[in-house]
Design goal:
By secondary structure, this protein is an alpha/beta fold. Helix content is 42%, strand content 17%. Strands 3-4-2-1-5-6-7-8 form an eight-stranded mixed sheet, with helices on both faces. The chain is globular.
């Protein structure tokens, strides 16, 4: 039985697609060990029942989970404290990871790092691969240092320069690099220190099987007799999502029977709620706390469309957000305040309306356009495109071929 060591700072019960990847490899006959941290994303505090002494080793769906110590990321309104908490969170994980690499006895055949920020965690996979002479794969979902500069606003070369050198080392010493968008492939290959194109591959995210079109469900918090046009936003409520455009658009749509269903939480939630109240559009928003991912299709079943937005930066233009696949898998029309890769896919699929990033006026106009369109037909096209390009079984077969070739 081939043994995969999966390195990911985030893992179950944190809700990331890496969870399903690990469980699927187990179903396909692999032994899978996950090296991860103590769960604390996105609110910055350890989940109930998890700490430095409890649940440091778990078995979940056949996956052996090893949790190494880290410092919880915290959640402060002070930007400096937030940045310090994030840095401590990232650094503590790799310090613990380096110690673990020296002392472990798991005997893996391949190490696979799933990189949702921070990129620093990829060092652990490289250290393990070199120490035990096995292939090291990296799945890039956040580009560094671009992500650091975009999210933090830091452009000082004294800070970004060392990060850039670290990324060069990671790419150089990784055997295969996979990315979630074609734009990421080009960005990696064309870095100032070039990366061999032959080892960089586009491998998009899929949506788990429970993301599928469902008949209308009864959902707590949503009145089943409410006949408003409902647009859902699901997932992390962060600064990168640029959700301020949605509150302004809601004010511009005061004469339309439309509501926005926000499902999730995150660091930007308090500011979003403040904007909702300031603009007097509380009656246009239904706020639903974070739910297990398996329940998202039920919520989408009572909504007419899904919403995607980004802040206006070159990085987000290259990004394909995971919720795009989720909406498409559930057969939903999409309204987006986005450009680049997201716009390309929506237009290729013919499954929605894409408007200028950051323009509330354009978004309001796009929503009016969508409300007049055949959302059911758009949803059907979304599901067809999903089956063609984001099919889980096809993608996992493709990855398995890479893995078996590397192990051989």
């Amino acid at each position: 039985m081939k043994h995969i060591l999966l390195v990911s700072q985030y893992f179950y019960p944190e809700t990331f697609r890496v969870n399903d990847m690990a469980a699927t490899w187990v179903q396909r006959g692999y032994k899978v060990t996950v090296l991860t941290g103590i769960p604390n994303y996105p609110l910055g505090k350890f989940y109930a029942g998890y700490d430095y002494r409890h649940k440091r080793r778990e078995l979940w769906k056949g996956v052996d989970i090893i949790r190494i110590p880290l410092i919880a990321r915290g959640n402060s309104r002070n930007k400096i404290l937030n940045a310090a908490g994030m840095a401590a969170n990232y650094l503590s994980f790799i310090v613990s990871g380096k110690r673990w690499v020296k002392k472990n006895d798991i005997n893996a055949d391949l190490v696979f790092t799933v990189e949702v920020s921070p990129m620093t965690q990829a060092l652990i996979g490289i250290w393990y691969g070199k120490r035990y002479h096995i292939p090291a794969f990296l799945y890039v979902q956040d580009l560094w240092p671009e992500n650091v500069e975009t999210v933090t606003g830091i452009h000082n070369r004294a800070i970004i320069g060392p990060i850039d050198k670290m990324v060069n080392k990671i790419y150089r010493e990784t055997d295969k690099i996979f990315t979630t968008s074609p734009g990421f492939v080009e960005a990696i290959v064309n870095r100032p220190v070039p990366v061999d194109r032959d080892k960089v591959h586009y491998w998009p995210q899929y949506a788990e099987e429970f993301y599928r079109p469902l008949p209308r469900h009864t959902v707590e918090g949503i009145n089943e007799n409410d006949n408003s046009y409902k647009i859902a936003f699901t997932g992390n409520i962060g600064t990168a999502q640029g959700l301020n455009v949605l509150t302004i658009a809601a004010a511009l749509l005061k004469d339309e029977n439309v509501k926005f269903v926000i499902v999730g939480d995150g660091r930007y939630q308090q500011e979003l709620e403040r904007q909702i109240d300031t603009l007097g559009v509380r009656d246009r928003f239904l706020m639903i706390p974070r739910v297990p991912a398996e329940r998202i299709p039920e919520i989408l079943s009572v909504c007419d469309a899904g919403f995607i937005s980004f802040s206006k930066t070159p990085l987000w233009e290259m990004t394909i957000p995971a919720k795009l696949q989720s909406y498409m898998a559930c057969g939903k029309a999409i309204i987006a305040s986005a450009s680049g890769e997201t716009k390309r896919i929506i237009e290729e699929a013919g499954c929605g309306v894409c408007t200028e990033i950051g323009s509330a006026e354009a978004l309001a106009g796009g929503i009016r356009e969508l409300m007049k369109a055949d959302a059911i037909e758009m949803g059907r096209k979304a599901r067809m495109y999903f089956e063609s390009y984001f099919n889980k079984n096809i993608l996992m077969d493709e990855m398995e071929n890479f893995i078996l070739e590397a192990i051989r």
